[in-house]
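> forwarded from #structure-qc
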């Protein structure tokens, strides 16, 4: 999963881009639900939130390291119809 750092300026552009609905406003800044973030694996070649973020504040979450197989498995859990 990726994580939004405190450099987030709450510009709102990433939230609608997430194909998994993993991004939501938190108490002070936007937050990513690691249970829903597949790093866009299964949907896109690159993380869509990272593509649109104007301040580059969305790195990989060191607390939730995952390989491609794990991310793809999460994608299929989130989208059982695929
Ligand atoms: Fe959503 Fe993709 Fe960003 Fe994860 S990497 S929060 S799935 S847009
Ligand atoms: Fe924050 Fe970046 Fe999302 Fe804007 S695009 S709300 S700065 S994480």
């Amino acid at each position: 999963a990726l994580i939004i750092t405190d450099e987030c300026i709450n510009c709102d552009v990433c939230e609608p881009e997430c194909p998994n609905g993993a991004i939501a406003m938190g108490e002070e800044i936007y937050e990513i639900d690691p249970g829903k973030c597949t790093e866009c694996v299964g949907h896109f070649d690159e993380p869509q939130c990272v593509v649109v973020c104007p301040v580059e504040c969305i790195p990989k979450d060191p607390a939730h390291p995952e390989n491609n197989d794990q991310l793809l498995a999460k994608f299929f859990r989130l989208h059982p119809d695929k």
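QC bot note: The pocket of iron/sulfur cluster (ligand 1) is lined by residues 2, 17-18, 20, 22-23, 32, 37-40, 47-49 (CB under 6 Å). The helical segments are 48-52, 68-78.
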